[in-house]
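User: Show me a protein chain along with its predicted structure.
Assistant: Here is one chain, sequence first, then C-alpha cells.
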Amino acid sequence: SEAQKKVKPSKKQKVKESAVVVLWSDLQVGKVDHRGGTEALLQRVSDTNQRLFELLEKENPSRVIFCDLGDTIENFDNANSPNQTATNNLSLMEQIDLATTLAWRTLSQIAERVPKVTYASVGSNHCQWRRQGKAVGKATDDWGIFIGRQLARLAQETKATNVNFLEPQPMDESLALDVFDDNFHVLGLVHGHQARRPEMLPSWWRQQAFGNQPVSNASILVHGHFHHLRVTEMGSTPQGTSRFLIMGPTMDNGSNWYRLRSGEDSTPGLGVFVLEKEREFRGTVYKL
C-alpha cells in the first residue's frame, strides 16, 4: 500500500496519426494447388479485401503502407521448371496481367479511403529473373518490382496523387522507410528467401548492420516467403522499445509439396497491423 501511494497514473496519450501496414505476400498468381486455382485466388483476394476495407473504416488511419513482399506471381523458372509448367493454369503474361490488376484494384480502393498511401515492393525468388532456377541480372530485375512500376504509371495517369511508390536500389533486395518521418517507426521490407529457414532471419537482420544495409536501422522488419504468420520480439530500439520481426501469411493456393513432406499446412490470409505515431508497437498483427 505504501508503494502504491508513489505510483502515478500514466497520462492518456492522444493518437496524432496512425498507419495501417498491409502485408501483400505470396499470391503466386497462376499456381494451382490443393486449395484450387485462379478462381479460388480471386475469391480469396475479394474476401480479404472486404475485411481490409472494414478495418480501414474502423481505424480511420492517416496513411496506409502497402507492402508487396514478393512472390506475387508463380513464374515458370523459379526452381522446378517441369513442375511449374504442369501446375500453372496461366501463362507468364497472364500471371503478370492478373497480378497487376489485383494489386491496382486493391490499391486504388485503399487510396479512395485513406489520405496517403505508400506502395513498397521488394524482389523475391518467384518473381526474380531466373534461368534454370538461377538468378540473372540485378536484384531489381524482378517481376514484382516491374508490377510496382506499372502501378506507378497507372497512378500518374489517373492522377492518384496521394499514392507514392518505393523500390530498392538496383543492387539491393531490401528497403526501409520512415513511416511518420520522425525516425520512431522505421519499417524494413525483404522477401525472406535470403534465409533457408524462418529461424535464420533474426541473424540475417542483425548482420545487416555490419554492411550498413537498408534494413539495418529498422525497428520492424516484415517479410513473407515462409507462408505462415509469425511475430518475433527481438532486441530494442534507440527509443527503448522492442524491435519486431513479422512474417506475413501467404495468400496462395497452398504448397502441397511442403504439406506432403512436413505434414504441416497453414490457412492463407492477409497480414495487417497498425502503427501509431510516437507510440510503441507491441506486436499485435491481424490475419484477415
